[in-house]
Amino acid sequence: MHPDAHTIHLVMDNLSSHHRQALAERYGERIGGLLWDRFTVHYTPKHGSWLNQGEMEISLFSRQCLGQRRIPSLADPRREARAWNRKMNRDRVTINSKFTRKKARQKFRYKGNNFMRS
After folding, report:
1. What does residue 101 show for φ and ψ, rounded to 5 degrees?
2. pLDDT digits (tens, 9 = 90+) for 82-96
3. What 3-state DSSP class applies to 8?
4. How many CB atoms are located within 10 Å of the residue 80 CB?
């Protein structure tokens, strides 16, 4: 634990064990509540992969910031990466994935119960 931190930011999925009640059951209502109150919880999406969002971010960074050029030194891409990141944050760029379940079934040619069991 981080005793000097006022707030601890957690990125967690939506498992039932990742809620206040789980800490209260483990450490008691008083201590569990005190612990939970120090957290700022950021839950990942229930119906989407946060990993996919990270992969999209890396892809955008690669295409928009780095491009298809040779990089002579580390100083240039570091400076450009900081500038690109500041711009994305300033413009509040969000990920709006349009890859729905229906599109996924079409792309991967899913046909109902047509799958093999081991």
Report:
1. -60, -40
2. 888 899 889 988 777
3. strand
4. 15
